[in-house]
Write a structure and sequence with these properties.
Length: about 180
């Protein structure tokens, strides 16, 4: 025999219509991570844009917006639920990164393009080299400290990670 709604439902939900009418309770299984809700009823009065309310054990309510509704076809006498695609209210949107940005540069000098990663490292190392140079340490110690930075930048993994900027910094360190 097929599974019953009582065996599948872990949650109790309500549907709130646009006119604030509250329908339910309905037996359901809410998967908030996937944004899916299975509602175990034969007839569900819900529409895209309605609110789904889920009481919590702390006496509060989680509020979801209904984005889409599907009816699952029963297979092998298993009770077929309505499948709701939902988005939890107050959930932050995942940030979408533009993998191919567009740059429009006109009449500029000293233009710097990057994703702030390698350039930040170069800026820190430039500042470090400048502080070493300004220090009151003996010239031999300054030279030794700058050579350590040069050794770091000359390592193949580091130079690949930082790109051409590393070569410019090495040249700058040798010149001082």
């Amino acid at each position: 025999m097929g599974k019953t709604p009582d065996a599948l439902a872990k949650d109790k939900i309500y549907i709130q219509k646009s006119d604030s009418t509250k329908l339910g309770p309905y037996k359901a299984d809410v998967d908030s991570k996937k944004g899916e809700v299975e509602v175990f009823v034969k007839d569900l009065d819900a529409e895209v844009g309605d609110k789904l309310l889920r009481p919590t054990s702390l006496g509060k309510e989680e509020v979801y917006e209904v984005l889409d509704i599907h009816y699952e076809i029963p297979i092998a006498k298993v009770f077929a639920p309505f499948m709701l695609e939902v988005k939890r209210q107050g959930s932050p949107e995942k940030q979408k990164w533009n993998s191919s940005p567009t740059f429009n540069i006109t009449g500029a000098q000293n233009v710097q393009i990057g994703d702030h990663n390698a350039q930040s490292v170069i800026n820190v190392l430039n500042s470090l080299a400048a502080e070493i140079e300004k220090s009151d340490a003996p010239e031999e110690q300054k030279k030794e400290a700058k050579q350590k930075i040069q050794e770091l930048l000359s390592h193949p993994i580091v130079s690949n990670a930082l790109g051409g900027a590393a070569a410019g910094l090495i040249t700058g360190l040798l010149g001082k």
